Amino acid sequence: MLAARFMSRSPLVRSASTHAPRGVAAILQKNPEDVVITFARRSAIGRAKKGQLKDTTVDELLHALFKATLEKTKLDPSKIDDICVGTCHPPSPLYVSRAAALAAGIPNSVPISTVNRLCSSGLMAIRNIAHAIQAGETSIGVAIGVDSMSMHARPTPEICEAVDKNAEAHDCIQPMGWTSEMVAETYKVSRETQDKFALISHTRATESQAKGIFADEIIPVELKGSVISVDDTIRPGVTMESLSALKPVFPKWGEASTTAGNASGVGDGAAICILTTRERAEQEGMEILGKWVGSAVVGVEPKYMGISPIFAIPKVLEQAGLKKEDIDVYEINEAFASQFAYCVEQLGVPIEKINPNGGAIAISHPLGMTGARQVVTGLAELKRRNGTLLCTSMCIGSGMGAAGIFVNEARSASKL
């Protein structure tokens, strides 16, 4: 099995804290220095170029999200020690993020940074704030993942001729659709299998939206005089027949099995988490939703970028002293059904535990947002089912992958 081979050739990686707990019992202990999440919400997602956020700039979206969060939490913004924004492609991201924070009423004494690790940027923002809290440099921090793929589509990377002569370097900058086709061709993931996994995502997301489940994780934001509170990316009525009728979107690559129906949607949106120590949360009277445990980042051959969760998930589980069976909910990004199907097969995790409300194929994948959205979505689902442990993971353009572990500390009132 790929994951087993990876673990056998990779040294154990030290956790962010040398005293990090390992094993379920230790992880579930509540200690004053724990990094906890006291707020986790996301905006509704808009369909890129056509949806409700197509004319909304990144700073406008951030501004609205900051304002809605401060109003909802009643957090005194002067108590925020740091903000980290995960985003991929807007120009001058630090300037627009800082400007949006100031315009939302966050004082100029609160610093801000941005991080770009492509599809994991939102998770990296959470990770950066969590590490700063663990190091004692930050007490209350805010992590955000945001992107407007309407305004800032993926640029075409350019490298010099000397670098491009290296085969892996050349593969590193190829379009993500090409990597999807390479995974499908090399690992024999058929078009039918891809469509079957896509149908699961579309069906689950449609049913969850109809039941109002996403309202638990979406914070309404006001933009241009309108309140945005419902995803416009989910397409009801998708069937196996309608999926199989779609033409390939990359006909010149591989076996041409990737379609608009079995690949992640292109979208716009943002997600936010507030983190602090357990001790500070209790002092401030903040509700504790979850606990940060740890994360892991891996590299893989760029040509097969999409298979990286197969390595990232075992790595983060090993760091935490957990087994895959210990996890109640997995949020694994569905960049493409080709890579997602292969990851599910290789990981050996029941599909019932993975993306129970649908994933990026149905909901969409604003690049910088996804890593934070998965945490918001996963914690909300754990609260509904009174589950305990969440594992998130995603592949990352250029040939990387990431994963994170979180503990649910919120309980559904209907099940108490």
TrEMBL record:
Annotated protein name in UniProt: Thiolase, N-terminal domain-containing protein
Domain Thiolase C-terminal: 288-406
Catalyzed reactions: an acyl-CoA + acetyl-CoA = a 3-oxoacyl-CoA + CoA
PROSITE patterns for this protein: THIOLASE_1 (PS00098)
An MF annotation (GO) of this entry: acetyl-CoA C-acyltransferase activity
Family as reported in the entry's similarity comment: Belongs to the thiolase-like superfamily. Thiolase family.
Keyword Acyltransferase: yes
Pfam families, per the entry: Thiolase_C, Thiolase_N
Coiled-coil segments: none
Biological process annotations from GO: fatty acid beta-oxidation; phenylacetate catabolic process
Pathway recorded for this protein: Lipid metabolism; fatty acid metabolism
Record domain Thiolase N-terminal: where: 35-278
SUPFAM superfamilies membership: Thiolase-like
Protein keywords: Acyltransferase, Transferase
Keyword Cell wall biogenesis/degradation: no
PANTHER family, sorted: 3-KETOACYL-COA THIOLASE, PEROXISOMAL, ACETYL-COA C-ACETYLTRANSFERASE
GO CC annotation terms, alphabetical: peroxisome
CDD domains, sorted: thiolase
Active site: C119, H365, C395
